[in-house]
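4-hydroxy-tetrahydrodipicolinate reductase, pasting as requested.
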Amino acid sequence: MDTSPTRLLIHGASGRMGQALLRLAAEQSACTVVAAVTRRAPAQRVVDGVPHFAATELGGVPAFDAAVDFSLPEGFDAVLALCVDRGCPLVSGTTGIDAAQQDALATAATRIPLVWASNFSLGVAVLAELVERAAAALPGWEVDIVESHHVHKKDAPSGTALTLGHAAGGAGQAVRYASLRAGDIVGEHMVQFTGLGERIELTHRATHRDIFARGALHVARSLVGRPPGAYRVRDLLD
Ligand code: NAD
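Structure tokens follow.
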């Protein structure tokens, strides 16, 4: 059995999620970061032993076993193309990708194993299942999703809100969304089912973004060696 650490490329390494990924990966002997990629040229070429690259240098990064992408939609196409080109798994949490990018993901999944998820927390995977069950059991109830995030978040509604809306809408309900941007909120999602004279609220609160980074690193390691396909976080979290 191969016990060598999984070689990771971190795409979006200078961001809030990228920094969490680098810190947590450094604590794990099961993986090693061989390339950290940021939009602009890095101030230092090597930081804590990790080689850094600008997005324009992506084609020249060393061999890696899996890429973990938490960047922005404008950086997404390049890392997806690199993974297909190198035949390497991709884990992406980048939200706000458009329909063409989603189509490109589906096409790539015929060539490489990949996970794109709007949320890598186990709690949200369970919340989505609860929402699915509640929506199926409560036809005709109104469904509202309220999501809150920090002021730097650009896309709205959040990718997680859309995923939860998809889970609720499967039973035919129309879903309304409301987005709040305030302070340093890591991420909160409340799904409200309203019937005549009664209401159910299902809420998830993320208090630390390490939950997403830890989940993404776990998923990246689990994807190595799997056949091509689009996997879900809940398929790989055990
Ligand atoms: P951020 O703005 O702090 O960081 C963005 C990073 O992307 C930076 O390192 C930047 O250099 C890089 N980048 C931007 N454009 C690029 C390009 N063209 N090429 C290469 N790199 C580029 O953002 P953040 O808070 O770290 O979030 C990053 C993404 O992850 C967002 O889409 C956010 O919504 C998403 N997110 C997902 C989850 C999840 O669990 N799926 C959790 C938190 C955040």
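Note for the archive: The first strand starts at residue 6 and ends at 11.
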